[in-house]
Amino acid sequence: MQKLALLDEDKADYVTYHEVIIDEMHPDDFHDVFIPDVSLSLRTRGRTAMSILQDVCGCQLTDLLQPRVHDLVELLQSQVHHDFESITEPSRTNAGPAEVLHLQVIIETIDYHRYEPVLEFTFQGIFDAYLMAPLVQDTPNGDSIQDRQGEAAVTGTFSFAADWPLSAQQEVLDISDCTIEEWSSHLEVT
Question: Which of 10, 50, 54, 61 would suit a FRET pair with 39, their CA atoms being 20 to 30 Å apart?
Answer without folding.
Answer: 10
